[in-house]
Design goal:
The chain is of the alpha/beta class and about 325 residues long. Helices cover about 15% and strands about 30% of the residues.
Length: about 325
């Protein structure tokens, strides 16, 4: 498969620098690009590869970045452009709808049109599966759960009872949704389990990575808002509410009954304590610990998490302690 530079530019709505009829045979990384491919420059850290790359063309934000004679396509966002170009070269293969003979489907489950169900899938009583869904091998969908249109559940996923999943949702292998929350009352050194009677509601256009765990609510619902993207190895506890368009990266964990606003970003291994509220458009740096509620629209870092400018100032002061000690020692 190949496309001309002109075809690619038209697809991404970019401006060509060079021969629009030049053929591109694939996509590659700028640091180890192959002849005949197109690459992109998005992160300034990779500027050093710009004039060394073997790629035939480069997505850039301005033509002046290209050396004389180097071909490229000028776009506003090179990373978005390369994503769209990958769609050109690696289109999603349409799978012919089918239900494997080993699948176990309850008689009262409602299965929509053009649904694919893989080997050893178990769909329990009262389940509703929307049109165009794909359910991978060994996946289990518990009683009275529902799956919206065109959602994809990959292999070995466990959906407990009463879970509501929206449309165009992608869930990757090993994830468990609707497991009991961690709720106990301790009396005389005996941990009495609190019944977890609520459910989980997942909005539309959500993607959930592999080996994640999302707990059902004790009472009410654990909620994941539309367009939120969840990385691998994320834990979301009971009664948590996450807004629209959030980005939760690997190792993120949030304790029970905390609420996250819309369009928040949490870097890797961030932890959030229970019963807190995080405002809209918050960003929390990696390995931070959120121990109190945070206002929206700010960047936070550290343990406990605080405004990143204050965090950096404190870190700088700590780094100066060694030098201060040496000065004091020299005076003794």
């Amino acid at each position: 498969m190949h496309f001309t530079l002109g075809q690619i530019a038209s697809f991404v709505k970019g401006e060509i620098v060079g021969n629009d009829k030049h053929h591109i045979i694939g996509v590659s990384q700028i640091q180890d690009a192959k002849v005949g491919t197109i690459t992109f420059l998005s992160n300034p850290l990779y500027n050093k590869y710009l004039h060394k790359t073997k790629a035939d063309a480069i997505f850039v934000t301005k033509s002046s970045l290209l050396k004389k004679g180097q071909m490229g396509i000028v776009v506003q966002n090179p990373q978005l452009a390369i994503a769209k170009t990958l769609e050109l070269f690696y289109p999603t293969k349409k799978q012919k709808p089918s239900i494997h003979k080993t699948a176990v489907i309850s008689k009262d489950a409602k299965i929509g049109n053009n649904v694919s169900i893989g080997p050893m899938v178990c769909i329990e009583s009262g389940v509703v599966v929307g049109n165009g869904c794909l359910i991978g091998a060994n996946t289990v969908i518990g009683k009275n759960s529902s799956l919206g249109k065109k959602s994809v559940l990959h292999t070995n996923i466990s959906i407990y009872n009463d879970v509501i999943i929206g449309s165009n949702v992608i869930i990757h292998s090993g994830t468990v949704i609707g497991v009991d929350g961690f709720g106990y009352v301790t009396i005389d050194n005996i941990h009495e389990k609190i019944p977890q009677t609520g459910n989980v509601i997942i909005g539309d256009n959500v993607e959930i990575g592999s080996n994640c765990s999302i707990d059902r609510a004790t009472i009410g619902s654990t909620i994941i808002g539309d367009m939120t993207k969840i990385d691998n190895l994320v834990h979301i506890a009971h009664n948590v509410k996450i807004g629209r368009g959030c980005l939760l990266t690997a190792g993120f964990a949030i304790a029970g009954s905390s609420e996250i606003g819309d369009y928040c970003t949490f870097a890797g291994q961030v932890g959030v304590a229970p019963h807190l509220k995080i405002g809209n458009n918050s960003i929390v740096a990696s390995k931070s610990g959120v121990t109190k509620s945070l206002k929206g629209g700010k960047v936070y870092a550290g343990f406990p998490a605080r405004n990143i400018k204050e965090h950096n100032k404190r870190q700088a002061m700590i780094n100066q302690l060694g030098k201060l000690k040496d000065k004091i020692d020299s005076l003794i």
